[in-house]
Amino acid sequence: MFKILSGIFLLSGIVGVISLLFAIFNFIKLDRIKAIKMLKFTGISIFILGLSALSASEFLPESYKVSKEESPNEKHEEKPVAKVESTKDATWQGKVKEVASFNSTPSKKFDTIEAYAKKYPATKAEIKEFEDYIVAEYKNKKYLADVQNNEYMLGNIFKAYVVNRYYGEEETPINDFVFGFYQNSNYTFKGLESINSNAIKYNERQMDKALTAIEN
Known about the structure:
elongated; 8 helices; single chain
């Protein structure tokens, strides 16, 4: 049915155009009677043209019709946005592991984990846990045994920085001890000092004094 109406639409258009041309031609020749007749044909053709167009629209294939859901004036439903994990929700262990896997230099990894440690909301229980861990790692001489182990070294740096940040400028044996631990971990991880350098050994002597004060 759509094809038939399309044919009528096309034929009416052609007839209308021809009739209009004949009407103009007869007006030029001053033959008004023929010109008026041609104009009548043109009017009839235009009427049929409009009627066939209106009827054909009812039989348009579904693929040509714009559905209500696809209308550009309709507000599209927003797609769900992936949840961004906040610092509060993330664990420090996960962050350390993530930074350790980065394809970057030790210095850049250090800067990233330190920036994270500056904002980490540590609890008093975590501070005590970190202190005990740092002391234990130093006493068993493990803390500089594998400075190429990114995850281990970054974890130590993170813990030491958090503890030092907690105490601030307070001069206490535990704070002095942790600061030495932080410096030695920092320097050896970034390759600024070897584990047997004079600077590292000097810090360890100061750490030994602080450790004696802690345990007495």
